[in-house]
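Schema walk-through. Below, the input block comes first and the output block second. Nothing else is stored per chain. Lengths vary across the set, and this one has 472 residues.
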Amino acid sequence: MEKLVSIEIWNDKSYILPILSFLDSAASQFGADIIRYNRMRFALCGILRIRIENCYPGTRGLLHVEVFRSRTSFEISIRDKGVPGWQDFSYDLNRVASDETSLRNYILDQCVDEIGIEKLGKDGQRIYVRQRMKNPMDFKKPEPYQPMEVLDTNISIRTVETEQDVIEAIRCIYSEYGYTYGYESLYYVDSFLRAIQQGQLISFLAVNDHGQTAGHFALSFSEFFKGMPEISSVVIRKEFRGLKMFSKFVEHCVKIAEERHFRALMGQPVAYHTASQKVVLYNGFTATSLLMSYIAADLESEYNKGERLDLCASVRIMDKNAQSTVYPPKELTAFIRKVYDKLGWSYEIRDDYKQAEHTQIRIEDSSTLRMTRIVLNETGEDLAQFLKDTVRDTIHKKNEMIELMICLSSPSCIYGYEAAKESGFVLSGVIPGGENGDYLLMQLLPGEKFDYDRLVLFGEFEELRDEIVNGG
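--- output ---
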């Protein structure tokens, strides 16, 4: 996200109205939807008041109010070095009718698209709210899917550049997912174009000689895995299936990655469709992790049978000069070596572990996926309590899965791994290749166990499941 504004204030409630007035002007200037912004403003007012009251009890201290903008969203955060604040905004969904604090926090949560909490170690903590720039309820009556008569099967691939191309991509995504696709910004022409222009997405259309759209796919870039885009938003219209389209898509992504000198590529075929798993493996990808129960059950897709959907994560290293230094837990060293040797790149495994002075952690809730993501960059002694609180809050908010990403490039990785195991997390695998470090993946289904027997896997992915089930 691009930072637009940073304001430093004292913990004095007299600053609340001036801050809100300033944010009103900023929101208007940068194109926020006024109705949605007003809901965000209500939540922000409550959060700001609570932090001012609680962060520096009995003394004076500084807070930083910061405004960010991405291609689709506004983010406003409150950062300080006072008393930890993530407890102030949790709630029990079963108690909102009887407990004032749970009701207040539930209302705040409903007013924004996302509330996130990030622990910054010695730099304190950051609590942020995000709101999309446009209202998704604009989509009242989507056009029904219209089957087409295929006029030819000579397929070529072109990069999405124009507004008309974007409209075709949106129609194609809708043909598979309706309006339940997890990345809502891809339903808006302006935000879709902005993502392309800002280099956050490279989008492609597959078309035949008559100009009919046969499919869509993209390379999407994540702040967590810099330099390693993911092959995503893959849709093949039903009329064009059986033409090995997915193979064409993956081959094209590899070609683009070579031309643009990406560090690595990631692919995540579903753990249901062995044909797509074969394609990524045959194109030089290595099976690295199983993302269990990753996609919400109500995703409108033919692969979803009323249960959360599992994914198979795979990586192909494109930059053969890339190197990695990692600190895996000793019990996972053999597992890590096996995966990294298959990747075919230079790496160093070290065991001079060192616990960090402060935990650096980021916690995000996704209402679309009904999951909580924890990104752990450094592990201090206080991690166990953070995990306990997060599991409790996840249960209260009715989220169904927790994903924990532990930075393998940190000497404190082993301490995060041990704390996570004690909290009930299980190994999912590893995501190597990002410029900002490699991650060990662990997951938790509160109150449930992962059903590995339901996976339909091929080759390396099947071997990976056996190793994960046996503890790496």
